[in-house]
Design goal:
By secondary structure, this protein is α/β, with parallel strands linked by helices. It contains nine helices and eight strands. α4 packs parallel to α5 and α6 crosses α7. The protein is globular and about 45 Å long. The structure holds adenosine-5'-diphosphate and adenosine monophosphate. The site of adenosine monophosphate has 17 residues, from α2 and α3.
Length: 217
């Protein structure tokens, strides 16, 4: 049966890093809504241009637009075995929509690792983050440096610093997370799906913990 895992946590918690590390092992697709919006922006689609008006301010893209994009993505055949969702859901109404979508596939969310990192650490993580232009892979100048500065280890693409990783925008993204996304902690805890993971540990230690959780899910 397909597995759907929601990686929950603030911006900079390590969701994308971990999804990249464990997706292949479990034959799950890494579905990042942030990456999907950025790909749309690169292609200058209407969706990308609309999303950018929210992303540039660190605000959430409206639920209806985001939900429609995820529905289309999860319906593709490469998600047949399931997905590691990174950055979605971000509001209770997105979480309800996800449950409805998955029930259409006779499936459900199996596990919600909540990667906890205190706000003080997030600014440093995001201001040192370097993102791959092609595959969205992420590095950190101090905690996970690429072998060659400015070049992605995985596909050789150029690395860049996201505009919304500037301190001012990050502060708003954390505020938006606290106001709109933290209700999901209770949402999934009350459904017995939430497992807390200490995201301040090393990238390797967090991976080991997630692998063991996914194996059991
Ligand atoms: P998210 O997808 O949750 O926004 P990322 O996976 O992009 O977070 O990680 C944010 C930044 O922090 C990246 O630069 C990444 O290399 C770094 N990072 C991720 N996990 C850790 C960790 N456990 N310790 C230190 N730095 C980390
Ligand atoms: P991320 O790559 O997860 O840090 O997301 C970058 C930006 O994309 C966010 O600040 C939002 O503007 C937008 N975004 C990503 N995922 C969602 C979502 N589930 N709902 C609304 N907006 C989103």
């Amino acid at each position: 049966m397909a597995k759907y895992i929601v990686l929950l946590g603030p911006p900079g918690a390590g969701k994308g890093t971990q999804a990249d590390l464990i997706a292949e092992k479990f034959e799950l697709q890494h579905v990042s809504t942030g990456d999907l919006f950025r790909e749309n922006l690169k292609k200058m689609t209407d969706l990308g241009k609309l999303a950018q008006t929210f992303m540039s301010k660190g605000e959430l893209v409206p639920d209806d637009v985001t939900i429609a994009m995820v529905r289309e993505r999860l319906n593709r055949t490469d998600c047949k075995k399931g997905a590691l969702l990174d950055g979605f859901p971000r509001t209770p109404s997105q979480a309800d929509a996800l449950a409805d979508m998955l029930s259409e596939f006779k499936s459900k969310v199996n596990l919600v690792p909540y990667i906890f990192v205190p706000a003080e650490a997030l600014i440093e993580r995001l201001s040192g983050r370097w993102t791959c232009k092609t595959g969205g892979h992420v590095f950190h100048e101090k905690y996970n440096p690429p072998r060659m500065p400015g070049v992605c280890d995985l596909d050789g693409s150029e690395l860049y610093q996201r505009d919304d990783d500037k301190a001012e925008t990050v502060k708003n993204r954390i505020k938006v997370y606290n106001e709109q996304t933290t209700p999901l902690i209770e949402y999934y805890r009350s459904r017995n799906l939430l497992v807390e993971v200490d995201g301040t540990k090393s990238i390797d230690d967090v991976s080991k913990e997630l692998i063991s959780l996914v194996e059991k899910a």
